[in-house]
Amino acid sequence: MRFQIHFHGPFRVATGSAADGLNASYDEENPLPASSLKGLMRAHAVRPLRLPEPLVGEVFGDRWNRTPWSWTDAEITGGVGRIRTQSRIDPRTHTVADGAMFTSGELWPAGASFAIVQRDAVDPDRIELHQAVLIAAARAITALGSDRRRGLGWVSVVPDRPWDDHLHALLTTHRSPR
């Protein structure tokens, strides 16, 4: 299965370390790793999709079983790197508060794609359910990377297989009650 990512703004999957005058940076060689994509999709399978934990574990793996699926790193196309500077203003002096300036690197790609491939056996009666979970989880993603609740990383993820009534019905029968 292949997925296209359409970026509606810049994003950053932070490396966890500063670099070249930046407080937060991204990996220029691999700005959107498979592990981030898998984790984000798993989180969306749990919430907002409300899939039961045994099904989520079956598809994404858990402490007892590894996932039968393998994610690729995103292949980024085009785009531009940029720097964002944020500061906190001291309400008393109306100037930047001491130590309150934060500079980070961001990337605004033209697009990206990634794949999920089957690496282990899946019960033939469960394969379409797994695919429905993966497609629905990807489609549920609206933001990725750091600071996504502060306006960074807005995206649309589009699977190569269109969502249809069959996949919807398959997934609906496995959702947890509210």
Tell me what the structure shows.
The mean pLDDT is 89. The protein has helices spanning 34-46, 53-60, 127-140, 165-172, and strands at residues 2-7, 69-71, 75-77, 80-89, 96-108, 111-118, 155-159. Helices cover 24% and strands 27% of the residues. It is elongated, with a radius of gyration of 19 Å. It starts with a strand and ends in a 6-residue tail after the last helix. It is built from 4 helices and 7 strands; from the N terminus they run E-H-H-E-E-E-E-E-H-E-H. Helix 1 crosses helix 3 (127-140) and helix 3 crosses helix 4 (165-172). It is an alpha+beta fold and 178 residues long. Strands 1, 2, 3, 6 and 7 form a 5-stranded antiparallel beta sheet that branches. A two-stranded antiparallel ribbon has the order 4-5.
Which descriptors would you attach to this protein?
single chain, 178 residues, alpha+beta, 4 helices, elongated
Secondary structure: elements and pairs:
Elements: E1 2-7, H1 34-46, H2 53-60, E2 69-71, E3 75-77, E4 80-89, E5 96-108, E6 111-118, H3 127-140, E7 155-159, H4 165-172
Antiparallel strand pairs: 1-6, 1-7, 2-6, 3-6, 4-5
Helix pairs in contact: 1-3, 3-4
- DSSP summary: helix tally: 4
Radius of gyration: 19 Å
Biggest beta sheet summary: 5 strands, antiparallel
Helix and strand succession?
EHHEEEEEHEH
Percent in helix = 10-25%
Strand content: 25-35%
Which whole number gives the mean pLDDT?
Answer: 89
What is the terminal-to-terminal distance? 30 Å
Query: Which of globular, elongated, flat, extended, rod-shaped describes the shape?
Result: elongated
- Per DSSP E runs of 2 or more residues, the count of β-strands stands at 7
Structural class: alpha+beta
Low-confidence stretches: none
